Amino acid sequence: MRKLILLTLLTGFTTLALPAEPPVPVPDVSHLALPSRTVASVDSGLLKTRGDVEIVVRLGDAPLAVAHGAGAKKKGGRLTPAQQREHVAGLSRKHDDLMREVRVMGGRERGRLTKALNAVIIKVDASRIPAIAALPNVVSIRPVGRYKLDLAETVPYIGAKAVQAAGFDGSGVTVAVIDSGIDYTHKEFGGPGTVEAYAAAYGADSSDPKNTTTDGLFPTAKVIGGFDFVGEVWPDGDLAPDPDPIDFDGHGTHVADIIGGARGVAPGVKFYACKACSSVASACNGIALLQAMDFALDPNGDGDISDAVDVINLSLGLDYGQREDDLSLAASNAARLGVVVVASAGNAGDRPYIASSPSVAPEVISVAQTQVPSANRFPLVINSPGVIAGQYPNTENVGWAPVVHGFTGNVVFVGRGCPAESPESPEDPYLADPAGKIALIDRGDCNVSLKVDRATKAGAIGVLIGLVAAGDPISFAFGGGDTFAETLVITKADADKIKEQLSAGTTVNVTVSPDVFIPLVGSVTGSSSRGPSVSFNAIKPDISAPGGSVSAQVGTGDGATAFGGTSGAAPMVAGSAALLVQAYPHRSPVELKALLMNTAETDIKTDPARFPGVLAPITRVGGGEVRVDRALAGKTAAWDEGDQTGSLSFGYDAL
Ligand SMILES: [Ca+2]
Ligand SMILES: [Ca+2]
Ligand SMILES: [Ca+2]
Questions:
Q1: Residues bordering ligand 1, an ion, CB closer than 5 Å
Q2: Which of 98, 331, 580, 651 has the most CB atoms lying inside 10 A of its own CB?
Q3: pLDDT tens for each residue of 318-328
Q4: Taking a C-beta distance cutoff of 8 angstroms, is the pair 292, 303 a contact?
């Protein structure tokens, strides 16, 4: 028998200021370096790889964020501006030494990091990796990660309005949004708010050179800096960095609006738009992400990190995250310097250990997703025949065909119901005519929205999507089509009950009504990723927030659309942190993190429809759902000075 014992410490003693360290006139940071003959750790997967690979080669000397000293952003660091620049120059000379050797092996440099991490990013034939690992000062070699954006939808209720009314709106606080860029022409960011203004900044399409130049339109008063570390073609082509981080994908614009747009959590903040995610795919480049972290610690690029941002938001991640991941390490270094780093836990569902990096880094605030106040679950009501009549609450909605008016009628089973996609892929024949009926359609093969579009055009008045494998219903993303009857996703077990009656010739009559629902407010979403962390069974995620919000839509001037997932939840917490940075400028990231966790709402349920009254475990929602008004008013917070996590874990106890 195995038992998981996890506890968080939710009460305790006051936020004590750390004792100030005496100034060190001649700083010696050599003790922070690892011995130069340490055997480098090499990712085991890389050793099996063939051909060209992109690798992150970390070197032994401390990056500037570490050398400057823990808490340097709040308390002042060990190094003067000139000493900081000399430290960076010293790291760079060693990078030169490394690259001389690597070039002989046919390797090419892809980037350098000196602030959040001390590393050189190299493209080289995998067979050369052992030789690079044997070079002096090399600490670790790992592959460049590819991270994914966490997409989805919903609205806020976390106490931010009360905090704004109390006089804190994030003014004076800087936030780096490491994402797909920001549409700085949008009205929510004080831009002109017209499609013409967007076109002037972005151009007609992704190949327009306008999206590679700033043309006097960037930076703006609200988005005060940034850089595009990706360009417009990756992953279909190579990285092509440029100085204009204008958004095209839209993800970063939503995230920034939730944090600090005109209607956002902290509307007074100023942004740095660090584009590290693709314009054309839900993917973020590992090289660009690391470079964006370095940028966020030194936005003006003068080698002095006194201008490091106050908050970094990363609505992205890699499932089964590890704290040894290079992006996790860079995030930890930034947090220890004094930057609040917030990352989404991921949208990979209720599976143990799947919480993503960099959110699993101990110092980072990992954010899970809870339901918005207006979220409801609509049960399927079977009216007849009597043998299966009743309410079936295990259902899911789809955002593009929500339950608004409801529907009542007789059900027909049409089969898999895919439309024709090509001569090689003709349409699935319908097993029954859905005109005037409710179409029951099996999940599978083609996109669900295309099935609903076809059934609706054939006259269906409502659609039930039946799963074809055991498990809980899931929501389906939009995948094409333009005509949708209201749709509900049901379990295989429920679908099988209906099919059994239909095949016996019995009429099955059902109702889905907007007046019959179970409120989901105060519960975790099914898709939010579960912890704990793969690394040492540490408690993750740390906190949760509603993930859905109607927020700024890129390129529309002043438009807004629904957005969500843990991508929408992380910026709720990043905005909350920005409010607290303004209110408590001298508190460290771990103090603010503990304050947010200790004052979060703990009455958060797993699923009020399926498991009424059952509380969500810590591994799904961390300390609870964020309440920034309580955090502002909080007088006590507790954390472990040793691990900076804000949690107290007794680990995994195998009995
Ligand atoms: Ca431009
Ligand atoms: Ca660009
Ligand atoms: Ca600087």
A1: 201, 210, 244
A2: 331
A3: 999 988 899 99
A4: no
